[in-house]
């Protein structure tokens, strides 16, 4: 049964971002987009240096997001640019073609946000941008599904599953991924930068889910014995 489930989860075993390119991280508020970018940016600087990396942010809604990304850029000594007008994104990305890696942070937007469709349409118009949907493993199935359906119009190239360390089980996330064709690119399981991010095969993710379930059941048994 578990092997069958693994076969239905698409994934990309290659470390996509290690090859360079342009990547936008999309998703709702609080799923870990900026933290994921921080991990990938730091890892790139460690292995390749800071000269050919640039960070972009299109998040003009939250000052805190700008400050977080600017602090990261200062620590890593990399370029950062704020995209004031999202319509200029295609031209800006084109002007940065000399960089090996461009990581784009975006505002957290819920699937009911009236600006979401127009926002995603611009990303869809940037063929050089790889759009990665960031999903939290702590989110319930229906909300994961709603988020995926809402962001799908951007033309998704993969997804990042975050906060594995904060969830009690992975059933909802595994079910959602097995039913849709967006490849799993990365998983994150902590706040440590740049360590807590990895490329996992579905079989490895399912093994982790089984271990989580065993730990949960053992915890329940211990509680019952102590009562």
TrEMBL record:
SUPFAM superfamilies named in the record: P-loop containing nucleoside triphosphate hydrolases (SSF52540)
Ranges of residues in domain AAA+ ATPase: 19-188
InterPro entries documented for this protein: AAA+_ATPase (IPR003593), FlhF__GTPase_dom (IPR047040), P-loop_NTPase (IPR027417), SRP54_GTPase_dom (IPR000897)
Localization per record: Cell membrane
Topological relation to the membrane, as annotated: Peripheral membrane protein
Keyword tags: Bacterial flagellum biogenesis, Bacterial flagellum protein export, Cell membrane, GTP-binding, Membrane, Nucleotide-binding, Protein transport, Transport
GO molecular function: GTP binding; GTPase activity; signal recognition particle binding
One cellular-component annotation, GO: plasma membrane
PANTHER family noted in UniProt: FLAGELLAR BIOSYNTHESIS PROTEIN FLHF (PTHR43134:SF3), SIGNAL RECOGNITION PARTICLE RECEPTOR SUBUNIT ALPHA (PTHR43134)
Family: Belongs to the GTP-binding SRP family.
General function of this protein: Necessary for flagellar biosynthesis. May be involved in translocation of the flagellum.
Protein name: Flagellar biosynthesis protein FlhF
């Amino acid at each position: 049964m578990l092997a069958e489930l693994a076969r239905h989860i698409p994934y990309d075993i290659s470390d996509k971002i290690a090859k360079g390119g342009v990547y936008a991280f999309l998703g709702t508020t609080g799923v870990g987009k900026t933290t994921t970018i921080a991990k990938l940016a730091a890892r790139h600087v460690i292995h390749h240096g800071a000269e050919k990396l640039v960070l972009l942010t299109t998040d003009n809604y939250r000052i805190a997001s700008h400050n977080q990304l600017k602090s990261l850029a200062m620590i890593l000594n990399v370029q950062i640019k704020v995209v004031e007008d999202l319509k200029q994104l295609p031209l800006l990305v084109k002007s940065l073609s000399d960089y090996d890696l461009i990581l784009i942070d975006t505002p957290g937007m819920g699937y009911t946000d009236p600006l979401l469709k127009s926002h995603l349409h611009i990303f869809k118009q940037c063929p050089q941008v790889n759009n990665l949907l960031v999903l939290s493993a702590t989110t319930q199935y229906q909300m994961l599904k709603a988020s995926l359906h809402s962001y799908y119009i951007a033309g998704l190239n993969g997804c990042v599953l975050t906060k594995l360390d904060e969830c009690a089980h992975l059933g909802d996330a595994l079910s959602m991924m097995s039913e849709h064709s967006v490849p799993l690119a990365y998983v994150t399981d902590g706040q440590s930068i740049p360590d807590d991010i990895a490329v996992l095969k579905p079989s490895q993710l399912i093994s982790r889910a089984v271990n989580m379930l065993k730990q949960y059941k053992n915890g329940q048994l211990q509680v019952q014995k102590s009562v």
